[in-house]
Design a protein that fits this description.
Elements: H1 12-40, H2 48-56, H3 64-67, H4 90-99, H5 104-107, H6 125-137, H7 145-149, H8 154-166, H9 182-185, H10 197-200, H11 217-229, H12 239-244, H13 249-260
Helix pairs in contact: 1-2, 4-8, 6-8, 11-13
Length: 262
């Protein structure tokens, strides 16, 4: 009797191989498309379809319940988009200048701090607005800023943002011109750290991503520590927390010194 061909399903070893291959593929698909999304989104109450879409990178339908009933459970309630800010006009900037008079003690008369508070002059308008909203809602915690923004309307916060964005981004003479650290220019792919410049520099800047150049060294360092230990958690998709958790103290000090020197 002639033995069946090796590539024929009549050959029992071929059948065993096909069955094992299919079983491995099914288990791998289940792990990658179902178990992993569930494990990484325990609080999101994903449906089976949403878990598969999440793993495949396909947007599924938005579910209000996935966001939670309490806004405080989310990193922020600000929807960041490229057109989230209306075009600033002279009236808006003027109102913002008046409102900013109460901010000068920490942020300086021209938006340049001498108290290790962030410099706001020339900052990205949407970035300022988002942080003000987050302070007001409690998504970003600060015993100083919370009472300062408590009585501000949405228009007030937009006008303040427009005013500070209008001011020139001042650069002190004799700024250091040291070469960018590798974390800034290249990141650390093996540790899942993207290049800082991909969000915080040049034309790649995101809609509400702040400019770091010239910010006080102490402030930058403290914010990176806050992201790393979870004291600050108003980054929408944990971009900064995921990066900061991977950074050493020496790397945080290097990044803070570099951006403060620019």
């Amino acid at each position: 009797m002639q033995e069946p061909s090796v590539l024929s399903l009549k050959n029992r070893w071929t059948r065993y191989s096909v069955v094992i291959l299919l079983a491995t593929a099914l288990v791998s698909a289940a792990v990658g498309f179902i178990w992993v999304p569930y494990a990484n989104n325990r609080q999101a109450a994903l449906s089976l379809w949403e878990a598969i879409c999440s793993a495949a990178g396909i947007p599924a339908g938005t579910r209000t319940s996935a966001l939670g009933d309490d806004a405080a459970m989310r990193p922020s309630n600000v929807i960041v988009s490229a057109n989230m800010m209306r075009p600033a006009n002279a009236e808006s900037i003027g109102r913002g200048a008046t409102l900013a008079m109460r901010c000068t003690m920490c942020h300086g008369i021209r938006g340049v701090s001498e108290a290790n508070s962030p410099n706001l002059a020339g900052q990205v308008e949407a970035a300022i607005y988002k942080q003000l909203r987050d302070y007001q809602s409690g998504h970003r915690v600060s015993a100083i800023m919370r009472p300062m923004v408590a009585g501000l309307s949405d228009r007030d916060m937009r006008d303040l943002s427009a005013y500070y964005a209008y001011l020139p981004h001042e650069r002190e003479p004799g700024r250091d011109t040291r070469a960018a650290p590798l974390l800034v220019s290249n990141g650390a792919p093996m540790r899942n750290i993207g290049a800082c410049a991909s969000c915080h520099g040049g034309y790649a800047r995101q809609a509400a991503t702040p400019i770091l150049d010239g910010e006080p060294e102490t402030y930058i360092r403290d914010q990176l520590y806050a992201f790393r230990n979870g004291a600050r958690a108003n980054d929408l998709n944990q971009q900064m927390r995921n990066v900061a958790r991977q950074l050493t103290d020496a790397e945080i000090a290097e990044l803070a010194a570099y951006y403060a020197s620019r």
